[in-house]
Fold Ribosome 60S biogenesis N-terminal.
Amino acid sequence: MEDTDDIDFNEQKLPEFTNKINHEAKLKELLRNLTSVESKLCSDASKEFIKLLKSESGPEFLRAYVQTSSKLIEIFQAWDARKEKPGFSYVLSLISAILSHPDGMIDNLDGNSGVNIGRALDKFARVIIEEKMKDLYKELNSKVAKRQNPVLLLLASIVRRSSQLAWEVAKIFDFKLPIFPKLAEVKLRAKRFDERRKKYSTRKAYVGFSMAFLEVGNPRLLRGVLQQKAMYSGVLRGMGNDDEETVVHVLSILCDRVLVPESLVPPGLRSVLFGSVTLEQLVSISGRADFGDAATLAHNVLITVCTNPVNGLMPDLDRKPSPLRGNPKRLLDLMKKLKATEVEYHKDLLLAIVNGRPSLGSAYLDEYPFNLEDLASPNWFAAVSLAANVISSVSDGLAFSFVDSREPPTFDSPFVQNIMKCISPRPFSRLVMNKGLLHSDSRVKHGTLRLVLEELKLLESLMNYLETCYSKNQMLQRWTALKQDIQNEVRILLPDPQVLMSFFSSMNSHYKNLESLSKRKAESDDISEHYINRRKKLKASTANEDVDILVGGVNSFPELNASGDGERGCGFK
């Protein structure tokens, strides 16, 4: 019995032992070819090594190599032999595959050899940073994408290993290399029929390297590396030409690592990160119906960046102890470029920005990018509806900062004037409102009336707050004067009373006509119903007469029988 158990145990160990022998044999072959003076042998060995690392047996193969050579001497030998020569890019790709392998990313102490694989690879990466950067710079300066990409991928794999290594790369790497910003460019070339397609480019590798620093997520590292404004400008300004996968990757990292309180990135630095061109790129992406998750993610990022003051764009002058001035000009420029009458995400973003903010709402309406004077335009209704939505959004989230103030603001104060500009937008003048209310097209009337109603709702909110203020305040005269000034101004801005009377008169006539038509229809329905009932009665009467005749005929049979014709009748029956 014991012998049988021993045999079974040996049979179970045999495949593992065989695999180990195979790995060692294959590893020796690859390392021999890797250090060969022949370029093709080295390149083929690098590619096969990478393929094995990505296979199911990759973890065992990696462990076998690090156990055999903890300092990865053969890799450095191949590096020195192939640098500045054909095939060097394959060696760099192999190193990148080794350093980014999941089993080599953590401290993993091998019980047999006593080698900590993770730490061994960290030391290997640190040697590259400290001793091999000149070789990498030469590859970057080669202006050949196939040589530049492996360098960026290798550096990204080092950065992702740990925040400490990432910090060391950030300190040593020369971000001011003249060639470096050019690696972010999307190279396009014309094709037949004026088509354009992407050429072999370094952009994706550049994005991966740049975002690797943020992936690590260390707050101290984030604040330091984001000082490399040109690098991240290169990433964000070119997103409009990236594929959906790249856009989702970049925006997801920004959401999870930068646009969160834990990042400790100050508002000023966040504001620099999201410059005008970057915002335009995000707006363009959010408006693309074919971009799926990327469009939604871009919209969410825009909402966060443009509405939360900690991101450096939205002002918050009431913030204590340090007010945030934001960048309202950049916001306004962005708002005017939104296709808010066509794209739902653009409209949502616009309304989110102006929500409860009369300063931005009035500035936008003052430079309204749509024509409201041409009532015959097919786009007029969409434009006037958007203006009404903007005023409604300003009103919905509005907080009156002077409610608890003992002294009322003046009529000329910015806050009151901004609200007045929302109540009567400059492009939507009294003349335009008069024409709209008297227009023959019901859609124009409806759009104009909707805008006037939103203006009146905002005015009502303002008046209610003023009444609340001066009912609790001893400076009654000054509060009353402010209210009177507002009322006087509004009387000049709102539609003419005669126009309103004419409008309501026409509406009354319209509804009376509708009632008249309804009555006529009801009477017509009654007449029709009466006619139908009479027809039914007539049919019923006729049917009854037929029955009577029939019954009469049956009743006369006995008489026929009495006259001797009864048998014929019975026979017929």
Summary: The radius of gyration is 41 Å.
